[in-house]
């Protein structure tokens, strides 16, 4: 039971909050509507001020909602527009904090997964994939996620998935090759195997052939073979990004190295990729497991070494184990192997 006066107080607080959020949404919407390359500097500055004046949670949710409404439509969005929107997220990700990019990325990936499962007729999947591709282009997310998505698409391998693979490779293929050539090579081999087995099922053979040709062009670093490939707009915006990011943290260290599985199960296992994100759900490791872990296997270690460990105040099993490993290893490789064990 909630007494009437308390109920009244809560209602006025709720109304106030709703009004504040409405005002915030209007301001953010106004900025996003005016967003273009020439005024990116002033708009990102104003957005940073809004982040300073309002709670991060409200800002992240408002920004994500508005960007998703703007970019995820049933018709294909102009590439330029998507790039500018993602560049704004990237600048805020570097200047304000990584939770900005993390919140947006999680929303986009979940929506993408949901739409891939349902057979949506429109171009929403392509638009979401373009957002993810440009988040990678502008150093918000690591190539690990892109490879996870590509693997998932290759494993399904229907005509819709082939379209999406082509779309993604055209946008970020050469960057993936630079980042992890080996993973790309494995992916191409897997796609070729899938294409051979799925040959009978797919009616549109030319599309599959075109996809395999594109992949081979990527592997051989041959840009001319990919029709309509133009790295110029991305490069131009990357230069602009470098001028707008305040800190030296514009490089790889702010990239979110997170897998597709982690993003999709964030509600069950927490968000380890956001610094300071507390987890209030079920404990991830049960206690029985952690107790057995404590008894570490040190192997046959001489009493002299154990005595040394005691003198150096190695007072727990794990410290003694590490000390013994370091003292008894032949070289760094041997030490590394033993520490891993």
Automatic annotation (TrEMBL):
Principal location: nucleus
Compartment annotation: Nucleus, Nucleolus
Pfam families linked: MIF4G
Gene Ontology BP terms: ribosomal small subunit biogenesis
UniProt keyword Coiled coil present: yes
GO CC, one annotated term: nucleolus
Entries under InterPro entries matching the protein: ARM-type_fold, CWC22_splicing_factor, MIF4G-like_typ-3
Domain MIF4G per the UniProt entry, residue ranges: 25-222
Keywords: Coiled coil, Nucleus
Coiled coil location: 181-208
Entry-linked Gene3D superfamilies: 1.25.40.180
Similarity field: Belongs to the CWC22 family.
Subunit structure: May interact with EIF4A1, EIF4A2 and EIF4A3. Interacts with PPP1CA and PPP1CC.
Name of this protein: Nucleolar MIF4G domain-containing protein 1
UniProt organism field: Sula dactylatra (Masked booby)
Gene name of the encoded protein: Nom1
């Amino acid at each position: 039971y909630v007494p009437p006066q308390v109920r009244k107080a809560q209602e006025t607080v709720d109304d106030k909050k709703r009004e504040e959020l409405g005002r915030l949404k209007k301001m953010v919407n106004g900025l996003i509507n005016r967003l273009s390359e020439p005024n990116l500097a002033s708009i990102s500055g104003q957005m940073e001020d809004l982040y300073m004046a309002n709670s991060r949670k409200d800002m992240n949710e408002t920004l994500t909602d508005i960007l998703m409404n703007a970019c995820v439509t049933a018709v294909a969005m102009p590439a330029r527009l998507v790039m500018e929107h993602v560049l704004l997220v990237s600048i805020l990700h570097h200047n304000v904090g990584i939770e900005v990019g993390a919140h947006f990325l999680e929303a986009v990936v979940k929506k993408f997964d949901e739409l891939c499962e349902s057979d949506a007729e429109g171009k929403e999947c392509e638009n979401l994939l373009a957002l993810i591709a440009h988040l990678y282009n502008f150093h918000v997310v690591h190539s690990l996620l892109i490879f996870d998505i590509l693997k998932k698409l290759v494993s399904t391998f229907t005509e819709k998935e082939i379209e999406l693979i082509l779309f993604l490779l055209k946008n970020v293929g050469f960057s993936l090759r630079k980042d992890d050539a080996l993973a790309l090579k494995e992916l191409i081999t897997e796609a070729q195997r899938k294409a051979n087995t799925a040959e009978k099922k797919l009616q549109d053979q030319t599309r599959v052939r075109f996809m395999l040709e594109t992949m081979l062009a990527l592997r051989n670093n041959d840009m001319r073979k990919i029709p309509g490939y133009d790295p110029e707009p991305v490069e131009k915006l990357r230069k602009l990004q470098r001028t707008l990011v305040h800190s030296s943290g514009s490089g790889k260290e702010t990239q979110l190295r997170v897998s597709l599985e982690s993003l999709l199960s964030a509600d069950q296992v927490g968000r380890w990729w956001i610094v300071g994100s507390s987890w209030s759900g079920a404990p991830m490791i049960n206690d029985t497991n952690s107790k057995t872990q404590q008894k570490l296997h040190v192997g046959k270690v001489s009493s002299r070494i154990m005595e040394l460990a005691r003198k150096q105040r190695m007072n727990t099993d794990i410290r003694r184990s590490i000390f013994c490993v370091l003292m008894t290893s032949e070289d760094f490789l041997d030490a590394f192997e033993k520490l891993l064990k």
